[in-house]
Amino acid sequence: MNFSEIKALDEGYVLQTYGRNQVAIDHGCGATLYDTEGKMYIDFTSGIGVCSLGYANEAWAKAIYDQAMKVGHISNLFYTEPYAKLASRLVPAAGMAAAFFGNSGAEANEGMIKTARKYSYEKYGQGRATIITLKNSFHGRTITTLKATGQDHFHDYFFPFTEGFRYAVANDMDSLLAVAGDDVCAVMMELVQGEGGVNPLQQDYVQSVAKLCAERDWLLLVDEVQTGVGRTGTMFAYQQFGIQPDVLTFAKGIAGGLPFGGFMTSEKCRNVLRAGDHGSTFGGNPMAAAAANVVLDALTPDFLREVQEKGEYLRSGIAALNSPYVSGIRGMGLMIGVGIQGMTHKELKDRLMDKGLLCLIAGADTLRLLPPLVITREEIDKGLAVMKEVMGA
Ligand SMILES: *Cc1c(COP(=O)(O)O)cnc(C)c1O
């Protein structure tokens, strides 16, 4: 099918809930993609930070195929090897104590919120269930995670929302203290706010929050759905902030393109959720777990150093454009935000796409770059050449 045939079917039969790019992607290799009309693109999106190993990675595809030919799904009522193996590798790499496997970021955050509330309920009883989250955050699209998201426009239409969230301004301890009360059980945050505009939190702020959490026995909940699994140049972003979360979530990049998400708890919280308290039919599906094991195979210390170096290379390449449209460059590793002025971020994204570079947008004015972690310097150079053509001085 060509693009217009695909688009017509989509418009005829799919809820039109996305502001879609006017392109149908057909196939790819590494960080290079091709649309149905044969046009080539450099990919700075990895499908919103998901395809960490790029497209058509052979080890990844083979692991999925091999597992599919053994057993594709069996549910959590049985043990499977890829699942147990993944947990035994991911948990120590994350510096945590135990994992729960689900399928998406929002679902992972729901489990993290349940853990915080049950921890507090068992220790302190009712009336201590409020979770402080940050303004400009994004935590998901379920009724609860929409309410956890600190952006007003996500709180329209779908009433009644889950109660028990209050919002503090990021990087501002006074704002946090102003909403803190006896009813609080946790603080939940992204260390680099992704959808909100690629805003890294300040290290001293994050450490102050962690200290306050420890003092008041609030759980420190870190949403690493976007920042986790190598994206920022370490296994998890928190490892660059000098803190230890009580619970952290992951999803997007973990299985390199198959749906997978989950959370990990510290020793302190590992016995909060017990048999019957939480579950998922698809969670930890053996094909997805096999794929995630291949992603972990790739994330060696050398590979993670490369992620940091390629991130710096891309950022300095953008800075060197001296573009009148760039108001600032932020981010960590291969999670990069470029502040845009003189044009809307949407318009710029469309112009870049037209010339063969796929990018994301975030916040009100940010071009968001989340290339596959395996992107080569040649591919980065090609992407930068498109940027130069579209937005250079
Ligand atoms: C994408 C994202 C989510 C939601 O993940 P889904 O898989 O879409 O449910 C939650 N938190 C953060 C930080 C995200 O970037």
Helices and strands, with pairings:
Blueprint: H1 3-13, E1 25-29, E2 32-35, E3 40-43, H2 46-49, H3 58-70, H4 81-94, E4 98-102, H5 105-124, E5 130-134, H6 143-148, E6 165-168, H7 173-179, E7 184-189, E8 192-193, E9 199-200, H8 203-216, E10 219-223, E11 247-250, E12 261-265, H9 286-298, H10 301-319, E13 326-332, E14 335-340, H11 345-354, E15 357-358, E16 360-362, E17 366-369, H12 377-391
Parallel strand pairs: 3-15, 5-6, 5-7, 7-10, 10-11
Antiparallel strand pairs: 1-2, 2-3, 4-12, 8-9, 11-12, 13-14, 14-17, 16-17
The structure holds pyridoxal-5'-phosphate.
Q: What is this structure, in a nutshell?
A:
The protein is α/β, with parallel strands linked by helices and 393 residues long. The chain has helices at residues 3-13, 46-49, 58-70, 81-94, 105-124, 143-148, 173-179, 203-216, 286-298, 301-319, 345-354, 377-391, and strands at 25-29, 32-35, 40-43, 98-102, 130-134, 165-168, 184-189, 192-193, 199-200, 219-223, 247-250, 261-265, 326-332, 335-340, 357-358, 360-362, 366-369.
